[in-house]
Amino acid sequence: MPDQTFDGGTDPAEPEATGPTTADGERALPPAVRVSDLWKRFGDQIAVAGIDLELPAGKFIGLVGPNGAGKTTTLSMVTGLLRPDRGTVEVGGHDVWRDPVAVKSRIGVLPEGLRLFERLTGRELLGYTGRLRGLPGAEVDKRATQLLDVLDLAGSQHKLVVDYSTGMRKKIGLAAALLHNPEVLFLDEPFEGVDPVSAATIRRVLERYTASGATVVFSSHVMELVESLCDWVAVMAAGRIRAQGTLAEVRGSASSLQNAFLELVGAHGRDTGDTLDWLGGGAAR
Ligand SMILES: Nc1ncnc2c1ncn2[C@@H]1O[C@H](COP(=O)(O)OP(=O)(O)OP(=O)(O)O)[C@@H](O)[C@H]1O
């Protein structure tokens, strides 16, 4: 359990600690997330086509793929927001659809298209979220103060969420997702629309969180970011997993994750030069 993250006590909603890896990292932990034969179809569109994933505990995990690959659909099913057509998902050994309460007490989620209670202030939002999570009021106050401070939102804590910028919304959403000290944190595009200063802040918080034994799973298109942050990567394209493993395994002999990614999704050397021959100052209007 990553309790030292915010100097918090153990979460009363958490019945037992999973325990971090040993200093030498030798002790094998059960996977944080296990996905088996997961499918989702929207009409004629197969968004997720039978994926299997085993996401190791205590790692910073990147789920990458081109637009429309099925990342959001996968994360929505894994976090219990969208019912799969077929397949199973386990978080910490608990089935997401058979045992949703056990799973939801162990996870934090920053979904795509984050919906927040807009007419609350940032501070009120955290207070409300903490009480919904069953935390005592004094503990919620303490953790909220620390999170607002660390995420550089203390000066805006009494502003209504509706008046927050995109980056501030991501940060207050992240604070709400972390408040109950989850074992696994799922983030859909956490750095999109976030300025470099805020991105560095978010990054520091997440690095500290994983260093204490917790697991972060995040989706992104930004390969440099994934390469610099993640220990473990899953590459998705057209609803399937093309590769999964440590960063070194997925990168293979390619010079960068970006190049490995382009190979894996079949986009290397794609030519646009001839098709757009009308585009540019020298071309006929
Ligand atoms: N509610 C829905 N109804 C119909 N089709 C959907 C729905 N949600 C997703 N899809 C389709 O499923 C496929 C996967 O979409 P998804 O949003 O999971 O991809 P993604 O990898 O998250 O993409 P992006 O990186 O662009 O956010 C796409 O073809 C998309 O159009």
UniProtKB/TrEMBL annotation:
Alphabetical keyword list: Antibiotic resistance, ATP-binding, Nucleotide-binding, Transport
One Pfam family it belongs to: ABC_tran
Region of interest: Disordered: 1-29
Subcellular location: Cell membrane
Record bears the keyword Kinase: no
Ranges of residues in domain ABC transporter: 33-263
Topology of this chain in the membrane: Peripheral membrane protein
A Gene Ontology molecular function term of the record: ATP binding
Main location: membrane
PANTHER family, per the entry: ABC TRANSPORTER ATP-BINDING PROTEIN, DOXORUBICIN RESISTANCE ATP-BINDING PROTEIN DRRA
Name of the protein described by the UniProt record: ABC transporter ATP-binding protein
Native organism: Streptomyces noboritoensis
